[in-house]
Amino acid sequence: MPREIPLRLCSASILSLWTVVLWSVQVCAQLSPQPSSILFRLQDIPRIPFPPPGNAAQSIQVSPDIARTSTTRVVLDQGAIRGKLVETPSQRGLIAFLGIPYAAPPVASMRFKPPLAHLGWSSVWDATDWREVCPQLDYRGRPIGSEDCLFLNVFTPGIKKGNTFPVVVFVHGGNFDSGSGNLFGPQALVDQNLVVVTLNYRLGMLGFASTEDDALPGNLGLRDQLLALQWVRDNIAVFGGQPDRVTLQGQGSGAVCVLLHVVSPQSKGLFHRAMVQSGTPLSEGSLHMSVREATQSAALSLGCSSVISSHDVRDCLYNIPVHELLRTQQEGKILGDYPLKFTPRIDPDSHEPMLPTSPTALLASGNFAKVPIIIGYNRDETAVLYPELLALLRSELGDDQDYVRNILLPKFFRTALNIRDFSKETLDDVYENYFSGTNYKDHDGIIQAFVNMSTSALFVVPILETVVLLARSSPSTFVYSFSYRGDISMLDSKLGQSASRRVNLGPAHGDELLYLFQVIGSGLRPSTNLVDEMVSRRMIKMWSDFSRVGAPVPSPDREYLPWSPSSPSNITIYQLGRSLRPHFIEPQEADTVALWRSVLPQMTDNTKQVEQVALSGHTSVDPVYRTLAYSMLTVALALLVAVTVLLAILYRQTRSNSFMCGGATPETNSRSSPDNTYDIY
Fold this sequence. Notes:
By secondary structure, this protein is an alpha/beta fold. The protein has 20 helices and 20 strands.
């Protein structure tokens, strides 16, 4: 082979490698922070590392067959319990104890009474199957459940001396009138060496009706949760759990409850971290300010016409069949589950109040449990209202070009936001912000604008306001935005999977749960999508690491990097999604936040207390893409060095051979033979 061929190959290789290097540098530059006018900084990769304390981030090393060699029988002070072995994704298995009673049945004279601890049982309690859910209506509007429903479920990797695990207690959502701990299978979380507890609590009128005095004090659902947390503190060690490492996790109205426990003086010391998914008591309607009115109205609707005092109301409601209570609490609902009528309340009049004053005041004063917190929202939370919105538009819109401004928006304000006193100027401002570019005949366009508006009003802005209040006193507040819409969605249970896929909306309320739990629900099917599995794997890893150490731990393989905590003046939002190229996250505009601060009563009350969030921005990039770019840059530079060394050796050999053949220099050869060019330097 002629000497010039290797040199030409080397030249071409170097040019190609330089191209790769320059491309990699350009990509890495795009991964760096860019200035912008974004109100809140959203990012996949935070710049400030947050190292976990000590060696706590290390995974707990346990025998892979611990579940299969563990006992399925434990003994509590209440009595003996028998559980069962359940398979997990890793095939390691777990031990499940289903339907453990943590409270005496709240039936007969105990209806509308605070819960009492269960006294126990004499024979072995069979905990191998689910127990009843609390009374509610199913998706077809049929009554299900039993008032004897205060059970919890414990899932453990195994029970062996010397092996103990952090604990996660999950509080389900459902707008305070539906749901159950039985719906959420935590197999994947237990595979991460966690003990997981799910629970039932009283819902609707049975859980939150109140006359705002000692007759019906209310907040019974919250007190059920409180008793369950006390049960966990006293008993979880028997199941291999660590009572001093308990994470309280909730979604939707369950997330509202978690934050209420964070601020409640009754719950302090019962948990040590919190995970708050898509809910906050600062959202309008989460705490109904007129539960008493709703209770009295329901009593009249149920035929309690002779009521005079609060005790008369209570005595009448004692005798109403549960299916009648369920029917009545649904009356007047216009937009999905809105308006919410039976919710937690501020109860300074109660004995040992759960909420002596408003959550806003407790947060602003710093008088709350300063535990590490993960808090966030999904991109299109209110997409779950799609069927109801479409039905409204089809039945009411017609040819009314002002329907949105004059009918839909006032309906939203009165039902979802529970605001009855609003001005025309307010409606005009909201309309111009969200609907000004929509065609009144474009149903999907109106729904998309409505989802953007209502997600901001009910979730994004109240949650970010909550973050500011939390971060003023707690340095470990981590914020996320879940933006991935995969092959599975909560909309599937409403529309069916094929119809749901045609809806051009992002992840809806509850969608993130599908990547953390095996959710049981009509119309929901397991995903076989590899990207769905990747997103699920990441979330489970981050959530379980937080449960162990109180901070999201960076991945050793740099698939995802540290997640910075937020401060009142610099909210860092970790983008939980999937992207194979750099992109900018659409900003939550400053004027939008200012708009809702002026409109929402709770936000208006906060304006003087809450500091303005700094203007900053950041490019959001998928961690896998970042890792790929930096890896390619490293490999390209290494190859460039190797080829350069090889070229230098070949060049020296060429010069030596040229001298031996007559003393010609490379320059002489270049002039005499135009095809032999060595001008690569």
